[in-house]
Amino acid sequence: MAKDSQVLDLNSSYSYLLWCRDFADTSILATVDDQPAGFISGYLRPDEPGTLMVWQVAVDEFFRGRRLAGSMLDRLVRQTDARRVETTITDDNQASIRLFTGFAARRSADLEREPLFTRDQYPDNHDTEFLFRIGPLN
């Protein structure tokens, strides 16, 4: 799904397997009729245990348009009892911007946006990643 999204940075299959082992409690896989439909990978920040850092969100193309990403995010926040959510998003990823601004609005939570890693910090000219901080969650 990450590869098929054509937006997410790809990681090795090994790293995804490690992620599933070590961060299963802070990640989620959605299935529809026993078919993988979407996933969110995340972790609780070590220096802010009440903050869920969402690393990747993907929904299989066949299941898009069903509000699955929003449902997964809502469930993951309940599952982790997070008080805040963070993620990073590049300016060209409108789907993620809509997902997280909609999440903040549903929760009547503040949303702060600021550059976290700028283009000049990357060795490969990666686009600036903006940190979205949402919370406190209601």
UniProtKB/TrEMBL annotation:
Coiled coil: none annotated. Pathway: Amine and polyamine biosynthesis; ectoine biosynthesis; L-ectoine from L-aspartate 4-semialdehyde: step 2/3. It holds the Pfam family Acetyltransf_1. It is an enzyme of class 2 (transferase). Signal peptide: none annotated. The keyword NAD does not apply. It comes from the Bacteria. Its EC number is 2.3.1.178. InterPro entries: Acyl_CoA_acyltransferase (IPR016181), Ectoine_EctA (IPR012772), GNAT_dom (IPR000182). Keywords: Acyltransferase, Transferase. Residues 1-135 form the N-acetyltransferase domain. NCBIfam families: ectoine_EctA (TIGR02406). Belongs to the acetyltransferase family. EctA subfamily. This is L-2,4-diaminobutyric acid acetyltransferase. It comes from Arthrobacter mangrovi. The gene is ectA.
